[in-house]
Every structure is written in structure tokens, then in C-alpha cells.
Design brief:
With 137 residues, the chain is of the alpha+beta class. The chain is 31% helix and 42% strand. The chain has a single domain, classed as Nuclear Transport Factor 2, Chain: A (Roll), CATH 3.10.450. The protein is built from four helices and six strands; from the N terminus they run ααββαββββα. It has a six-stranded mixed β-sheet with strand order 2-1-6-5-4-3. Strand 3 and strand 4 form a beta hairpin. The longest helix has 16 residues.
Amino acid sequence: MAHPIEAIIREAYAAFARGDLDGYFRACSEDWNFNIAGQGAIAGTYRGKQGLYELAQKAMATTGSTFQEDVEDVLANDEHGIVLARQRFTRDGQQQEYRTVHVYEIRDGKLAACWEHPRDQSAFDAAWGPRIESARK
């Protein structure tokens, strides 16, 4: 039988996929934070509900609202949640796709903190990297 936190995580991701950021945040603690390493356009630490909105806005602006995330699997217990995900989008006319792992700290039945761990950091940075303008002649 699946742990109850698994259902909470799956519903949070389903809400995010629908564009229901408040629905995602209902699964989170008030001091929630999401940590993205690397050099890409979305790298940083996002805190609280405002941070979630900022992260979603950056992701959608960077991808022209083409960002999609498929949950491949969820593992959870009272203290940790792991989400295996595939993310894809179009950026600057190029299709981007990579797989990543979200590692959650669970506190009092809520998502308290998350760290993104792409399977291939260089592919992740390339997908989200800053736009490079071609040299003008």
C-alpha cells in the first residue's frame, strides 16, 4: 500500500500541471522552499507561496508556456519524498527534454523543502541556460 504522502505529492504535481499553483501550495508548509542548482535561467532558491509563483512565471516565460512535467514515479515516507520526473519544453525553437529527481523534506505531513537533482546537470543547464544572441555583423 502506498504511503499517504505519495498521494499528496501526486495531487500537488497534478495541480501544478493544471496551472493551479494554489492547489500545489496546499501540500506545502508556509516556509516551503525549492532549490535549483546550476547556471540556468531558473537556478536559485524560491521561498513560500510568492517563490512558487516566481518560479512558475520564470519557467513559463522562458519556455513560452510550453513547459510540461511528467511524473514517472513517487517514493515517500513520513520524512522524505522522491519524485522522478521527465520535463520537456520548447525554447528558442529547440525542443528540450531531460529527466530529474526532486528530493523533498516532509515536515508535519507537508512538503517543506525540495532540491532538484537533474540526472545530467550539463543538459539541464543547456536546456535552461540564458539565451545566447548571435553576433551582429
